[in-house]
């Protein structure tokens, strides 16, 4: 949605600031930029792994939206999830907070088994940020900060040719990549 809004503003030749502001504003709602926040609120509501199965069954029976699942483009699985999930589990083990990984596995299995809906990147991001000590109110700003450079590049490209850009790409690299330590870079 934010990319479409951003492109829409660019088709009117709005400036860089207007396009970025529009993109940020489109993330304010809970269904996109706030999804990782909603995931963590959901996990806090569940509280412990022993309650996860009953919670998800109740949510599905009542046809509630379960945040962190489904994606308009990645219908058979979000390509970003394996890497983020790997690091979420690493952080949980390091900090001895495996209750989040247990809840993750129970909720993920239920959604796949009952609805055939895969997790999106918000599902592992919420608990990972939380375990790292990041306040829930900062999740959306982190989401925005990680995209500003790409948005700016799209805006500059749009201004250079004034042709509508419909970016789609498929990652074909390793499923999980090792991050080099800062002192080794």
Named at the architecture level, the CATH assignment of the largest domain is: Orthogonal Bundle
CA-atom Rg in angstroms: 18 Å
> What's the name of the CATH homologous superfamily of the largest domain?
Cytochrome P450-Terp, domain 2
What's the SSE pattern? HHHHHHHHH
Structural class, judged by helices and strands?
mainly alpha
Count of distinct strands: 0
Mean pLDDT: 87
- Total of DSSP H or I helical runs spanning 4+ residues: 9
Largest sheet: none
CATH topology of the largest domain: Cytochrome p450-Terp, domain 2
Shape assignment: globular
Query: Percentage of helical residues?
Result: 55-70%
Question: What's the CATH C level of the largest domain?
Answer: Mainly Alpha
Number of separate domains: 2
| Binned strand content | under 5%
Distance between the termini: 36 Å
- Low-pLDDT stretches are none
Describe the SSE topology:
Blueprint: H1 2-11, H2 16-26, H3 35-46, H4 49-61, H5 81-95, H6 99-115, H7 122-131, H8 139-145, H9 148-161
Helix pairs in contact: 1-2, 1-9, 2-9, 3-7, 4-6, 5-7
Please describe what this structure looks like.
By secondary structure, this protein is mainly α. The chain has 2 domains: 1-30 and 139-166; 33-134, Cytochrome P450-Terp, domain 2 (Cytochrome p450-Terp, domain 2, Orthogonal Bundle). It has 9 helices and no strands. Helix 3 packs across helix 7 (122-131) and helix 4 packs parallel to helix 6.
Short account of what is shown:
This protein has 185 residues and is an all-alpha fold. It folds into two domains: 1-30 and 139-166; 33-134, Orthogonal Bundle (Cytochrome p450-Terp, domain 2).
């Amino acid at each position: 949605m934010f990319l479409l809004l951003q492109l829409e503003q660019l088709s009117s030749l709005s400036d860089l600031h207007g396009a970025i502001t529009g993109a940020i504003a489109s993330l304010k709602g809970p269904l996109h930029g706030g999804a990782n926040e909603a995931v963590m609120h959901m996990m806090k509501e569940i509280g412990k792994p022993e309650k996860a199965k009953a919670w998800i069954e109740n949510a599905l029976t009542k046809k509630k939206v379960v945040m962190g699942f489904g994606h308009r483009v990645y219908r058979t699985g979000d390509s970003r999830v394996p890497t983020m999930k790997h690091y979420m589990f690493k952080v949980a083990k390091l900090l001895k907070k495996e209750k989040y990984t247990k809840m993750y596995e129970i909720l993920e299995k239920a959604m796949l088994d009952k609805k055939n809906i895969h997790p999106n990147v918000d599902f592992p991001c919420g608990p990972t940020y939380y375990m790292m000590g990041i306040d829930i109110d900062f999740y959306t700003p982190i989401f925005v900060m990680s995209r500003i450079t790409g948005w700016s590049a799209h805006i500059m490209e749009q201004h250079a040719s004034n042709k509508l850009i419909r970016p789609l790409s498929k990652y074909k690299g390793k499923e999980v990549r090792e991050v080099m330590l800062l002192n080794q870079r």
